[in-house]
Exocyst complex component Sec3 C-terminal domain-containing protein (Aegilops tauschii subsp. strangulata), 253 residues
Amino acid sequence: MLNDKDNFTQKGLLQRPDHADMRYKCRTYARLLQFIKSLDKSCMIPLRKAYCHSLNLLIRREAREYSNELRNSSKASKSSTPSFEGPAGANQPAGIADSPAEAYSKMITAFIPLLVDESLFLAHFMCFEVPTSDGSDSDEDSTPKTSGSSGSSAKPSNNSSADLGVLNECLQEMLDGIQEDFYAIVDWAFKLDPLSCIPMHGITDRYIAGQKTEVAGYVSVLLDDLESRITILFSRHSSLMMPVSRSKSMSVM
C-alpha cells in the first residue's frame, strides 16, 4: 500500500483512507497466529511490533498528506463566522475551499473512525485477550458514532487486564506521531480564524462522547488532547481580546 500513490491523498483530491482490503488479507493468517500463540506466547512480541511499525508508517503518511491537502485547499477561505453544521464529507475534490472548521471536521471524520477500527482489529488479529465490540471489522462511517461505541460490558479477567496493558503499548506504537497532523490542523485553523475554535470544540466533544471501548483508549487520549489544545488556544484569544473590549467601552463612556 505504501508504494501505491493511489492509496493516498494527492494534490486536488482528498483520498479517504480505506484499509478494508488490507484487513481482509490479514485475516488469512488469523488462525496461524492463534496457533503460534498457543505454542509460545513470546513469539507474538516481535510479530506485534512489526505489525504496529508497518501500520504506523501507513497511517502517518495518510494523515500527513490528508492534513497538508486540507490546509493547502482551504487557506484562502478564512471564515468570519463559525459553522455549526455536521461533519463534512471526507471524499471530495480538495479544490472546493472550506472554512478552517470544516477542514478540521473532515480530518476528524476521516481518521477517528479509522483509528478506532484499527485499534479493535489489532486486538482481535494479534490475539489479545481483551473484550472488544462486535464492530471491529466494520467499515469506517462518516458520522461521529464510531465502530467501538457498543463495547462489551463484561468485566475483564486478570489475564485480560494484563493483555490490555500490553495492547495499549502496542496502540501507542501503532498510532504514535499521528497527533502532530491533528495539532497542525488545529493550530492552522486558529491562525486563520480564532472563532473556528467554537465549532472545532463541538465536533471534538461529539466524538469524545462516542468513545465507549477501552480497546481504543489511545484514540480517547488523542481526542482529549485535541479538546484541551482547542480550549487553550481560544482562552488565549479571549484574554487578548478583553483589554480591547474594555478600552472601547471606556472610550464610549
